[in-house]
Predict the 3D structure of the following.
Amino acid sequence: MSREAVEGLNSELSGKMPQEILRRTVDLFGAANTAFASSFGAEDQVITDILNREALQVPVFTLDTGRLPQETYDVLDATRKHYGIEVEVLFPESSAVEAMVRLHGPNLFYESVELRRECCRIRKVQPLARKLSTLTAWICGLRREQSVTRTAVAPVEWDSAFGLYKINPLAEVSEAWVRDYLKKHSVPVNALHDRGYPSIGCAPCTRAIKPGEDLRAGRWWWEMPEHKECGLHREQQ
Ligand code: SF4
């Protein structure tokens, strides 16, 4: 698919409901060549629910960094049971984690942006890259409103970092839309959302936000806002 084709799809899908974007994704790429990367946050739970309601048969996978909060494992398990689905759990290479911790200690992420990115690279980006190399398209729960690093998110993108299509069915929806959807459909959610965590990553790198703060202010809170991505979602062409 060319850049023009991606632009054409975005013209077609802009303003459409996430359900329609997901149906079109499966039409275009096939469920078997597509996968949904879930971290079991609010947006991801909406997508899992839509995939299930629409019977789209897209496989779901997640990255277990080894540093996730217990609440994330709890909602992973609740989601498996609620929908009767299999979730593929991807782990980092143990030898790479062992070498990193031996060299820099278990809390290296607090020491510098470079070491924080190295931890994300080993625990998240490498396992994701292995998985994405088997796919034609991946689905993510990004929304434009989430942060300064996500204002240009489009429903369909060419992910030049990993060499496949990236589908963001919630790109244009609001936080209120997500909240209403979850409530209306009684979707299982991470218990941390009700304790001030709108965005949830690894336990040592996530904290609750204060009223009025940016939705991702609790992620790597010691860093500048423009650094706050883990390498899974890089700037697209
Ligand atoms: S979020 Fe923190 S603990 Fe998790 S992979 Fe990145 S730096 Fe490591």
Q: What stands out?
A: The radius of gyration is 17 Å. The longest helix spans residues 113-132. Strands lie at 34-37, 60-63, 87-90, 137-139, 156-159, 164-167. The mean pLDDT is 93.
